[in-house]
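F.,

This is the one I mentioned.
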């Protein structure tokens, strides 16, 4: 059997860079009676605290944030942030939500359960092929929430909206993918399982002056101050996910930092969008200015061909291309760890598939 190189286009949990995979494999090459691995040691001991400190300092440096913001390493994924953010920061004030796709809708629906959010713009009417226009913000607005990159719909804000209230961004699927004005945001969050390693860790950034707005009576676990005051170790952290995150930020630093990631990501996105636009067989209807650099949904001329595309692609080593069930079609996720060679292999496969079925 000839072996094919595997390329992983999964939307998340997603590919790790080869160097990170090697480091994790080495760290977990468990012998029955060997030294404890990183997954088997106390989070309060010296060995793990060194990992935690390096992770935090590298992350802050990459994000360009200083003491004005606190960086928290939490549990619960972005979904917990959908509720925790309004519970902490939108009591007695109205938050505003700008909706550009599926995840923004989920964030808004959860905010409705614990606060009185105003929906200040949505591009749902045109099928989320464009970014929304923004209407008026409510008085005493707690924050404006937006989804930096909509993972399912394949839409991305090139820059945060410009408003006079604190910005709160769901950056799950674009975190650390390019230089970004993190320090201009009041609040941001991202699950680690796309650009920062494996599932189990959620990065949260909060401007410290906003901590004063948190009500006094929240359950401790849900109060951001608990995590600020415990260096994100109020309880046992997802230690292995922190370790993989550290290896991932080391890899980012060794590969040109966020500028390096942006170059890599741009080259991949351009290669794939050009292949789609140049063919009469594949399509992506998102307006050019709103297209995501990270997640590229696309369709074949005939939806009945999708299952065959996915199966044949898997045989060719191209995994994780099935579109999200909400939209159908296909989707290629081009997170940091994926290389340009993977996209070239995908484009070659797409052209071959089109020749045979188009
Ligand atoms: N927001 C965005 C933009 C996402 O892509 C995802 C996951 N695909 C989520 C939120 C939900 O993340 P989690 O599963 O970490 O709660």
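My design for it:
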């Amino acid at each position: 059997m000839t072996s094919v190189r595997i390329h992983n286009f999964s939307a998340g949990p997603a590919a790790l860079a080869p160097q990170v995979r090697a480091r994790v494999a080495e760290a977990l090459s468990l012998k029955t009676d060997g030294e404890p691995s990183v997954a088997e040691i106390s989070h309060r001991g010296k060995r793990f605290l060194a990992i935690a400190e390096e992770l935090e300092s590298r992350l802050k440096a990459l994000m360009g944030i200083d003491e004005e913001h606190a960086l928290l390493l939490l549990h619960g994924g972005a979904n917990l942030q959908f509720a925790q953010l309004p519970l902490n920061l939108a009591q007695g004030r109205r938050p505003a939500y700008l909706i550009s796709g599926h995840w923004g809708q989920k964030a808004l629906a959860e905010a409705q359960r614990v606060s009185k959010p105003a929906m200040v713009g949505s591009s749902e009417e045109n099928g989320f092929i464009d970014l929304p226009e923004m209407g008026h913000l409510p008085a005493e607005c707690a924050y404006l929430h937006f989804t930096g990159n909509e993972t399912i719909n394949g839409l991305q804000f090139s820059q945060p909206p410009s408003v006079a209230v604190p910005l709160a961004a769901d950056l799950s699927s674009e975190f650390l993918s390019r230089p970004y004005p993190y320090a201009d945001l009041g609040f941001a969050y991202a699950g680690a399982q796309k650009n920062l390693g494996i599932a189990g860790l959620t990065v949260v950034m909060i401007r410290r002056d906003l901590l004063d707005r948190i009500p006094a009576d929240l359950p401790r676990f849900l109060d951001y101050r608990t995590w600020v005051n415990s260096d994100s170790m109020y309880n046992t952290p997802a230690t292995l996910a922190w370790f993989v995150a550290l290896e991932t930020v080391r890899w980012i630093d060794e590969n040109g930092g966020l500028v390096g990631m942006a170059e890599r990501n741009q080259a991949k996105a351009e290669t794939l969008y050009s292949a789609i636009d140049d063919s009469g067989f594949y399509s992506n209807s998102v307006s050019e200015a709103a297209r995501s650099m990270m997640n590229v949904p696309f369709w074949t001329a005939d939806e009945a061909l999708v299952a065959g595309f996915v199966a044949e692609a898997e045989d060719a080593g191209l995994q994780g291309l099935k579109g999200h069930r909400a939209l159908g079609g296909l989707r290629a996720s081009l997170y940091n760890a994926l290389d340009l060679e993977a996209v070239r292999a995908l484009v070659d496969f797409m052209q071959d598939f089109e020749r045979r079925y188009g």
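The longest helix spans residues 257-278.

Talk soon.
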